[in-house]
Amino acid sequence: LAAARLSGAEGQEETEMPSQGTALLRHLLLKLRATGPVTVAEYMREALTNPGQGYYTRGGGIGESGDFITSPEISQIFGELIGIWYISEWIAMGKPKAFQLVELGPGRGTLTDDILRVFKQLASLLSKCDVSIHLVEVSPKLSELQALMLTGGKVQPNPEDNSAYMKGVTKTGIPIFWYRDIQDVPAGYSFYLAHEFFDALPIHKFQRTEKGWREVLVDIDPEVPDQLRFVLSPSTTPATENFIQPEETRDHVEVCPEAGVIIQRLACRIEEDGGAALVADYGHNGTKTDTFRGFRNHKPHDVLRAPGTADLTADVDFSYLRQMAQGRTATLGPIKQRDFLKNMGIDLRLQVLLQNSSDKATHEQLLHSYDMLMNPKKMGDCFNFFALLPHHRLLHPDKKHKPEAKSPLAPVAGFGELILK
User: Fold this and answer.
1) Does an H or E element contain 139, and which?
2) CA 265 to chain centroid
3) CA–CA distance, 222 with 228 (Å, rounded to integer)
4) pLDDT tens digit string along 90-137?
């Protein structure tokens, strides 16, 4: 836009801008002129999930050709180890007769596909267990891609019998369902998975000032009428009253209330029905300040420019997630991705794959993807794993009533070193 202006191309800005960036920007400018500044959360929600023009609604750019790449897209090992994590928890919890695998924001379905391959390889172990897959996905475009990858496109839209908007059978013969909200997923013993899900939920941003906490808002830039800028709220907002902890020491804070609500729901479900939740995302333990950023074509992108055309994201505050579990479940982590994957046996799995392939290109690809996942400078240190588990999974049964209950609890895979016998 600035370039169009500098070249004296008056009256041509509209055609010079990518058309997809203009519709949502126009919508936001009209809204801001009518109602004044909006919270960063509201801006983020519009940019990512606006029904017509949102970034995810239109399909989101995952993968090499898109705007960002995720671990399952880099290496099959990632999803396989997560599949093994669920199996190991299922065994540790006494092999319940049925479980639902529920993934929040499944992207293109790659991760679920890798997990299903593990379930198929361990079919004899799972033979007496009734497994079903439940995907929580708001994007119509992404759910089509997931259906194609996981079922080969054999799905039935709008099944009448339940709250799912689509259902089918995976290529490995397991029933699969799609929902718009976690509340719609039926109750029951469930394993939950949220990989790079929480980082895309809308955040509120706050700044400490001489007058106390003020919320960061998005408004029209008066100097450049078709551009956006950040401003501070003139007084406190409902969010400042509700989301800032009295003991907060940072000067800039990001809070994601939606993440809090989802963690509460997961914790309640695990407390009532059993199961576990595994969260993998980039984040911190309540120490970072300003992490709101945009990505387009794998490069940083100004968060306020061309809304709807870039992925917007913010680091997950795991200390906030732990607090929001409210003691209903035990929590483990956050632990760095490279430690979690090492504990899960990634080195052993890599060796097996290297031995099983004689092709040089495959070898290089395997080593490159291992480096991407494990290197502290790449994904190894910035991604973390965090889990919610029922308290009884970590507490020893009371020995007074059951002196025979001496069997030690199996360690939780991934969160401690595995001793390979």
Assistant:
1) none
2) 16
3) 9
4) 999 999 999 999 999 999 999 999 999 999 999 999 999 999 999 999
Q: Residue 15, class by beta-carbon neighbours within 10 Å (0-12 exposed, 13-18 middle, 19+ buried)? A: exposed
> What's the whole-model pTM score?
0.89
Looking up tokens 């917007």 gives: 312
CB-hemisphere CA count at 13 Å for 419?
Answer: 3
Beta bridge partners of 303: none
What kind and span of H or E run contains 303?
Answer: none
| Residue 351 amino acid letter | Q
Specify whether the backbone of 138 is left (phi greater than 0), alpha (psi in -120 to 50) or beta.
Answer: alpha
Judge whether 272 and 187 are in contact, CB under 8 Å: yes
Q: For 54-203+256-393, which CATH class?
A: alpha beta
Q: How far apart are CA 301 and CA 177, in angstroms?
A: 35
Would you state the structure tokens that stand for residue 197, as one six-digit string?
A: 């899900």
Could you give the residue ranges of the DSSP H alpha helices within 7-139?
13-16, 19-35, 40-49, 71-74, 76-92, 110-121, 123-126
